[in-house]
Write a structure and sequence with these properties.
Layout (H helix, E strand, L loop, with lengths): L7 E6 L4 H13 L3 E3 L11 H10 L5 E4 L10 H11 L3 E9 L9 E2 L2 E3 L5 E2 L2 E2 L5 E3 L3 E2 L6 H5 L6 E4 L16 H20 L1
Parallel strand pairs: 1-3, 1-4, 2-3, 4-11, 6-11
Antiparallel strand pairs: 5-10, 6-7, 8-9
Helix pairs in contact: 1-5, 2-3
Length: 197
């Protein structure tokens, strides 16, 4: 398969407020990808079809897309966009950064690993501040519920604290270190999976 007909690799991020956007833009630059900044917003305002069009129009790879439900526990527009992109036949979703929030009454989404604000990668649950709070491999947030429904369509999920914040450890002006490391984890996992094909 040559590069022209290869599916574009996509990473979804379940947060879209302004500080998260700055962190994601900075981190995406550092991994050599392109962030679709128009997908940010709290909540996400674009439709799934509009997001796919933007993904396909950029020459870069991977493409990072932000989706946000603005605290809604029901399926909001952010989750609908996430679902649409994950199921799109012309794209390859390689992973999701599942962002913890203080949303009550959510079951949480299952994660493959979590990253703390100290950039430690482990199995367990992190909170908004990027601290390990339980040994359960999940994350609780407002835009993550749909991940469990999607199952195999989401190959790798990293739980992470509030992007751009985490007590200053993920400051965009200082390189958004935690977000960068999380995106690198998703890329490394994809590369490992390619090696087995």
């Amino acid at each position: 398969m040559n590069a022209h007909n290869a599916k574009k690799k996509v990473i979804l991020v379940t947060d879209g407020d302004l500080i998260a956007q700055q962190a994601v833009e900075e981190a995406t630059k550092k991994i050599g990808g392109r962030c679709i900044s128009a997908s940010a917003g709290n909540p996400t305002r674009l439709t799934g079809a509009e997001v796919v069009e933007l993904i396909q129009s950029t020459p870069y790879d991977p493409v990072v897309v932000m989706v946000d439900d603005r605290g809604s526990t029901r399926k909001g527009n952010g989750e609908r966009v996430l679902e649409y992109v994950a199921k799109h036949p012309d794209l390859e979703l390689i992973g999701v950064l599942a962002v913890a929030s203080n949303t009550e009454n959510t079951d949480g989404a299952v994660v493959n690993c979590a990253i703390t604000r100290e950039q430690k990668v482990l199995s367990g649950e992190v909170d908004k501040e990027g601290e390990l709070i339980s040994p359960h491999a999940l994350v609780r947030g407002d835009t993550v519920g749909v991940l469990n429904e999607l199952g195999a369509e989401v190959p790798f999920v990293v739980g992470i604290g509030d992007l751009g914040k985490m007590e200053g450890r993920d400051n965009p002006q200082s390189g958004a270190q935690v977000t960068t490391k999380a995106l690198q984890l998703i890329l490394e996992n994809w590369q490992k999976r390619q090696a087995f094909h």
